[in-house]
Amino acid sequence: NAGVTQTPKFRVLKTGQSMTLLCAQDMNHEYMYWYRQDPGMGLRLIHYSVGEGTTAKGEVPDGYNVSRLKKQNFLLGLESAAPSQTSVYFCASSYYRNSPLHFGNGTRLTVT
Amino acid sequence: TQLLEQSPQFLSIQEGENLTVYCNSSSVFSSLQWYRQEPGEGPVLLVTVVTGGEVKKLKRLTFQFGDARKDSSLHITAAQPGDTGLYLCAGVPFGGYQKVTFGTGTKLQVIP
Fold this sequence. Notes:
The structure holds 2 protein chains of 2 kinds.
Chain A: E1 4-7, E2 10-13, E3 19-25, E4 31-37, E5 43-49, E6 56-57, E7 64-67, E8 73-78, E9 87-94, E10 102-103, E11 107-111
Parallel strand pairs in A: 2-11
Antiparallel strand pairs in A: 1-3, 3-8, 4-5, 4-9, 5-6, 7-8, 9-10, 9-11
Chain B: E1 5-7, E2 10-14, E3 19-24, E4 31-37, E5 44-49, E6 55-58, E7 61-65, E8 71-76, E9 85-92, E10 101-102, E11 106-111
Parallel strand pairs in B: 2-11
Antiparallel strand pairs in B: 1-3, 3-8, 4-5, 4-9, 6-7, 7-8, 9-10, 9-11
């Protein structure tokens, strides 16, 4: 049972480039989330989804877009990367709103 | 935004010592979760406390939810090197929100 899988694990981008992070879960969870983790700031919610075909903004959505075309996948896109988006990105899923979160192992993104 | 402050931010102790980590907020939560994160991995759920005043024990770890549901503490007895990691509290709000708020984190190092 893989749980939550994120690809890629590492990525280096130049300012202005675009990329997509992929998150896949095999637990049939309804809710999926994208967080970023920066030193001293904990985990901040970027976007989330409460079911297939739905997305909503979190705490820090600017500069990011998401899509949830299939229940098991949640994609995070950066259209024009900026150095401020250098961070570790975590995807998580949960069965329901108050259920515990299951996290992937993160993607370390550096924007130069 | 519901803020969760954790203290201390960093803690370096010798094996066998006891420690307490605090998680405080001015907001009331329906429940509170504690996660541990090891380097290069995503956070993993340790426990969820759901009732004001609740105390839960997980081997040498004791978790308490404040009576007013605004704060929580994690006490570790006789710390072991395997307890090393980043400890994160997360508040689950009431009502129609889908967003869990994470604390700023406590980085614990247990020296053998």
